[in-house]
Amino acid sequence: MTRPAGGVRPARASDLPVLQEIERAAGSLFAPLGMDLVADDDPSSVEQLTPYARAGRAFVSVDGDDRPVGYLLLDVIDVAAHIEQVSVRPDHARQGIGRALIERAASWASAHGLQALTLTTYTGVPWNGPYYERLGFRYLSPDKETPGLRAIRDRERASGLDAWPRASMSRGLAGPPADD
Ligand SMILES: CC(C)(COP(=O)(O)OP(=O)(O)OC[C@H]1O[C@@H](n2cnc3c(N)ncnc32)[C@H](O)[C@@H]1OP(=O)(O)O)[C@@H](O)C(=O)NCCC(=O)NCCS
Questions:
Q1: 69, 134, 75, 114: which is closest to 95 by C-alpha?
Q2: Strand order across the 116-122 sheet
Q3: CA of 175 to the centre of ligand 1 (A)
Q4: Ligand 1 centroid to 174 CA: how many Å?
Q5: 4: how many CB neighbours lie within 10 A of its CB?
Protein backbone atom coordinates (compact mmCIF):
# COMPACT_ATOMS: atom_id res chain seq x y z
CA MET A 1 0.00 0.00 0.00
CA THR A 2 1.38 3.44 -0.91
CA ARG A 3 1.69 5.83 2.01
CA PRO A 4 1.28 9.59 1.62
CA ALA A 5 4.72 11.11 1.09
CA GLY A 6 4.66 13.26 4.21
CA GLY A 7 2.55 11.06 6.51
CA VAL A 8 -0.26 12.06 8.86
CA ARG A 9 0.03 14.85 11.44
CA PRO A 10 -2.34 17.01 13.51
CA ALA A 11 -3.79 19.97 11.57
CA ARG A 12 -2.53 23.49 12.27
CA ALA A 13 -4.47 26.73 11.98
CA SER A 14 -2.54 27.58 8.81
CA ASP A 15 -3.79 24.36 7.14
CA LEU A 16 -7.48 25.15 7.50
CA PRO A 17 -8.09 27.07 4.23
CA VAL A 18 -6.51 24.13 2.36
CA LEU A 19 -8.92 21.75 4.10
CA GLN A 20 -11.80 23.74 2.65
CA GLU A 21 -10.31 23.30 -0.84
CA ILE A 22 -9.95 19.55 -0.25
CA GLU A 23 -13.56 19.23 0.90
CA ARG A 24 -14.82 21.10 -2.14
CA ALA A 25 -12.75 18.97 -4.52
CA ALA A 26 -13.69 15.68 -2.81
CA GLY A 27 -17.37 16.61 -2.88
CA SER A 28 -17.26 16.80 -6.65
CA LEU A 29 -17.04 12.98 -6.73
CA PHE A 30 -20.75 12.91 -5.91
CA ALA A 31 -21.87 14.97 -8.92
CA PRO A 32 -21.67 12.14 -11.49
CA LEU A 33 -23.93 10.07 -9.19
CA GLY A 34 -26.59 12.79 -9.38
CA MET A 35 -26.04 13.58 -5.68
CA ASP A 36 -25.90 17.32 -6.25
CA LEU A 37 -26.98 18.21 -2.72
CA VAL A 38 -23.83 16.49 -1.45
CA ALA A 39 -21.56 17.68 -4.27
CA ASP A 40 -22.61 21.32 -3.85
CA ASP A 41 -22.59 21.36 -0.05
CA ASP A 42 -20.49 24.29 1.20
CA PRO A 43 -17.28 23.22 2.96
CA SER A 44 -16.93 23.83 6.68
CA SER A 45 -15.85 27.37 7.51
CA VAL A 46 -12.49 28.12 9.13
CA GLU A 47 -14.50 29.03 12.26
CA GLN A 48 -16.06 25.54 12.26
CA LEU A 49 -12.71 23.83 11.65
CA THR A 50 -10.73 25.78 14.25
CA PRO A 51 -12.06 23.99 17.38
CA TYR A 52 -11.10 20.61 15.88
CA ALA A 53 -7.54 21.77 15.26
CA ARG A 54 -7.29 23.36 18.71
CA ALA A 55 -8.53 20.17 20.39
CA GLY A 56 -6.13 17.96 18.42
CA ARG A 57 -9.05 16.24 16.70
CA ALA A 58 -8.18 17.26 13.12
CA PHE A 59 -5.58 15.25 11.22
CA VAL A 60 -4.04 15.93 7.85
CA SER A 61 -2.19 13.73 5.42
CA VAL A 62 0.50 15.82 3.76
CA ASP A 63 2.56 15.62 0.58
CA GLY A 64 6.35 15.95 0.45
CA ASP A 65 6.00 19.74 0.81
CA ASP A 66 3.95 19.37 4.02
CA ARG A 67 0.82 20.51 2.17
CA PRO A 68 -2.41 18.71 3.19
CA VAL A 69 -3.91 16.42 0.54
CA GLY A 70 -6.47 14.78 2.84
CA TYR A 71 -7.95 15.37 6.27
CA LEU A 72 -10.15 13.86 8.95
CA LEU A 73 -12.18 15.48 11.74
CA LEU A 74 -13.18 13.66 14.92
CA ASP A 75 -15.91 14.33 17.46
CA VAL A 76 -16.42 12.43 20.70
CA ILE A 77 -19.95 11.05 20.65
CA ASP A 78 -20.97 8.95 23.66
CA VAL A 79 -18.24 6.28 24.05
CA ALA A 80 -16.94 6.61 20.49
CA ALA A 81 -14.67 8.77 18.37
CA HIS A 82 -16.96 9.83 15.56
CA ILE A 83 -15.51 10.59 12.11
CA GLU A 84 -17.29 13.82 11.27
CA GLN A 85 -15.49 14.19 7.96
CA VAL A 86 -12.84 12.41 5.93
CA SER A 87 -11.84 13.80 2.54
CA VAL A 88 -8.98 13.21 0.15
CA ARG A 89 -8.17 15.27 -2.92
CA PRO A 90 -9.38 13.28 -5.93
CA ASP A 91 -5.97 13.60 -7.61
CA HIS A 92 -4.47 11.78 -4.60
CA ALA A 93 -7.24 9.18 -4.19
CA ARG A 94 -6.76 5.42 -3.98
CA GLN A 95 -3.25 5.60 -2.56
CA GLY A 96 -4.18 4.57 1.00
CA ILE A 97 -4.47 8.13 2.32
CA GLY A 98 -8.04 7.69 3.56
CA ARG A 99 -7.07 4.46 5.26
CA ALA A 100 -4.02 6.04 6.93
CA LEU A 101 -6.19 8.87 8.27
CA ILE A 102 -8.75 6.40 9.62
CA GLU A 103 -6.05 4.30 11.31
CA ARG A 104 -4.71 7.49 12.92
CA ALA A 105 -8.22 8.24 14.19
CA ALA A 106 -8.40 4.71 15.62
CA SER A 107 -5.09 5.22 17.46
CA TRP A 108 -6.30 8.55 18.84
CA ALA A 109 -9.55 6.96 20.03
CA SER A 110 -7.75 4.04 21.70
CA ALA A 111 -5.33 6.42 23.41
CA HIS A 112 -8.32 8.36 24.76
CA GLY A 113 -10.02 5.28 26.19
CA LEU A 114 -12.88 5.23 23.71
CA GLN A 115 -14.57 2.00 22.67
CA ALA A 116 -15.31 2.46 18.98
CA LEU A 117 -14.95 4.52 15.85
CA THR A 118 -18.27 5.56 14.34
CA LEU A 119 -19.45 7.42 11.25
CA THR A 120 -22.53 7.96 9.14
CA THR A 121 -22.37 7.42 5.42
CA TYR A 122 -24.06 6.47 2.16
CA THR A 123 -24.53 2.73 1.83
CA GLY A 124 -24.60 2.66 -1.98
CA VAL A 125 -21.60 4.85 -2.82
CA PRO A 126 -18.52 2.68 -3.53
CA TRP A 127 -16.10 4.92 -1.60
CA ASN A 128 -18.48 5.22 1.36
CA GLY A 129 -20.24 2.23 3.02
CA PRO A 130 -18.54 -0.55 0.99
CA TYR A 131 -15.13 1.09 1.53
CA TYR A 132 -15.64 1.40 5.28
CA GLU A 133 -16.76 -2.24 5.45
CA ARG A 134 -13.38 -3.15 3.93
CA LEU A 135 -11.76 -1.17 6.74
CA GLY A 136 -13.60 -3.17 9.39
CA PHE A 137 -16.69 -1.01 10.02
CA ARG A 138 -20.12 -2.67 10.33
CA TYR A 139 -23.57 -1.16 9.82
CA LEU A 140 -25.55 -0.33 12.93
CA SER A 141 -29.29 -0.88 12.87
CA PRO A 142 -31.14 2.17 14.26
CA ASP A 143 -31.94 0.33 17.51
CA LYS A 144 -28.17 -0.12 18.10
CA GLU A 145 -27.34 3.57 17.62
CA THR A 146 -26.27 5.41 20.77
CA PRO A 147 -28.27 8.55 21.68
CA GLY A 148 -25.62 10.84 20.19
CA LEU A 149 -25.53 8.93 16.91
CA ARG A 150 -29.32 8.96 16.76
CA ALA A 151 -29.28 12.73 17.15
CA ILE A 152 -26.77 13.04 14.28
CA ARG A 153 -28.94 10.84 12.04
CA ASP A 154 -32.02 12.93 12.94
CA ARG A 155 -30.19 16.11 11.92
CA GLU A 156 -29.04 14.51 8.67
CA ARG A 157 -32.58 13.46 7.79
CA ALA A 158 -33.84 16.95 8.57
CA SER A 159 -31.24 18.50 6.25
CA GLY A 160 -32.22 16.30 3.30
CA LEU A 161 -29.11 14.09 3.24
CA ASP A 162 -31.25 10.93 3.38
CA ALA A 163 -32.45 11.45 -0.18
CA TRP A 164 -30.07 8.48 -0.77
CA PRO A 165 -29.72 5.43 1.53
CA ARG A 166 -27.64 6.36 4.55
CA ALA A 167 -26.69 4.58 7.78
CA SER A 168 -24.47 4.61 10.85
CA MET A 169 -21.41 2.38 11.04
CA SER A 170 -19.13 1.35 13.90
CA ARG A 171 -15.76 -0.33 14.28
CA GLY A 172 -14.59 -1.72 17.59
CA LEU A 173 -11.13 -0.73 18.73
CA ALA A 174 -9.75 -4.16 19.53
CA GLY A 175 -7.24 -3.86 16.67
CA PRO A 176 -6.81 -2.91 13.03
CA PRO A 177 -8.58 -4.96 10.35
CA ALA A 178 -6.61 -7.50 8.39
CA ASP A 179 -5.49 -6.40 4.92
CA ASP A 180 -7.69 -7.55 2.03
C1 LIG B 1 -13.60 8.28 1.06
C2 LIG B 1 -12.23 8.83 0.73
C3 LIG B 1 -11.76 9.72 1.87
C4 LIG B 1 -11.25 7.64 0.57
O5 LIG B 1 -9.93 8.18 0.39
P6 LIG B 1 -8.78 7.39 -0.40
O7 LIG B 1 -7.49 7.97 0.03
O8 LIG B 1 -9.08 7.34 -1.83
O9 LIG B 1 -8.96 5.93 0.22
P10 LIG B 1 -7.98 4.68 0.19
O11 LIG B 1 -6.89 4.90 -0.81
O12 LIG B 1 -7.65 4.33 1.58
O13 LIG B 1 -8.96 3.54 -0.33
C14 LIG B 1 -9.47 3.62 -1.63
C15 LIG B 1 -10.66 2.67 -1.71
O16 LIG B 1 -11.87 3.44 -1.70
C17 LIG B 1 -12.76 2.93 -2.69
N18 LIG B 1 -12.84 3.95 -3.74
C19 LIG B 1 -12.24 5.16 -3.72
N20 LIG B 1 -12.58 5.85 -4.83
C21 LIG B 1 -13.38 5.06 -5.53
C22 LIG B 1 -14.06 5.21 -6.76
N23 LIG B 1 -13.97 6.33 -7.50
N24 LIG B 1 -14.82 4.20 -7.20
C25 LIG B 1 -14.91 3.05 -6.50
N26 LIG B 1 -14.30 2.86 -5.31
C27 LIG B 1 -13.55 3.86 -4.84
C28 LIG B 1 -12.13 1.65 -3.18
O29 LIG B 1 -12.52 0.62 -2.28
C30 LIG B 1 -10.66 1.96 -3.02
O31 LIG B 1 -9.85 0.83 -2.91
P32 LIG B 1 -9.04 0.36 -4.23
O33 LIG B 1 -8.32 1.57 -4.75
O34 LIG B 1 -8.13 -0.72 -3.69
O35 LIG B 1 -10.10 -0.15 -5.17
C36 LIG B 1 -12.24 9.61 -0.61
O37 LIG B 1 -12.78 8.76 -1.61
C38 LIG B 1 -13.06 10.89 -0.56
O39 LIG B 1 -12.58 11.93 -0.15
N40 LIG B 1 -14.31 10.81 -1.01
C41 LIG B 1 -15.18 11.99 -1.11
C42 LIG B 1 -15.63 12.46 0.24
C43 LIG B 1 -16.33 11.37 1.00
O44 LIG B 1 -17.11 10.61 0.46
N45 LIG B 1 -16.02 11.32 2.27
C46 LIG B 1 -16.60 10.35 3.16
C47 LIG B 1 -17.94 10.73 3.64
S48 LIG B 1 -17.85 12.01 4.84
A1: 69
A2: 8-10, 58-62, 68-77, 80-88, 116-122, 166-172, 138-140
A3: 21
A4: 24
A5: 21
What are the tens digits of pLDDT across the range 101-159? Answer: 999 999 999 999 999 999 999 999 999 999 999 999 999 999 999 999 999 999 999 99
* Rounded CA separation 52/83 (Å): 12
- Residue of 60, 87, 94 to mutate, ligand 1, most atoms within 8 A of C-beta: 94
Within 40-145, residue ranges assigned H as helices are 46-54, 97-111, 129-134
Whether the Cβ atoms of residue 177 and residue 127 lie closer than 8 Å to each other: no
- Distance between start and end Cα atoms, the chain: 11
Closest atom, ligand 1, to C-alpha of 84: 48
Report residue 174's pLDDT band, with 50, 70 and 90 as the boundaries. Answer: confident
> Alpha helix locations (H) across the chain?
16-27, 36-39, 46-54, 97-111, 129-134, 147-158
Q: In this structure, what are the phi and psi dihedrals at residue 123, rounded to the nearest 5 degrees? A: -75, -25
Query: Cα of 146 to ligand 1 centre, how many Å?
Result: 26
